[in-house]
Amino acid sequence: MILLTVMDVADHPRLAARTKQRVVTLDVVHRDPAALRADLENRIGGTVRPAT
Fold first, then answer.
1. Rounded to two decimals, what is the model's pTM?
2. Domain extent at residue 48
């Protein structure tokens, strides 16, 4: 029962609201991952974090 309560609290939408998902279609090809990250951060005005 405690595990279910912890899972329910951890999965609450208010805790997940700190991150956002966006789909971005690029008009350029970046061969360098650092350049891709910089371009994305510039376009969205935020920080790009690695997907896990």
1. 0.55
2. 19-52
* CB proximity list for 1: less than 8 A, separation 6 or greater: none
DSSP letters, 13-50, are HHHHTT--------SS--SSHHHHHHHHHHHHTS----
Is residue 24 very low, low, confident or very high in pLDDT (cuts 50, 70, 90)? confident
Averaged pLDDT for residues 21-46 = 89
Tell me how far apart the alpha carbons of residues 37 and 7 are, in angstroms, rounded to a whole number: 32
Residue 33 falls within a domain, yes or no?
Answer: yes
Q: How many domains does the chain have?
A: 1
Under 8 Å between Cβ of 35 and 43 = no
**Tokens coding 51:** 């997907």
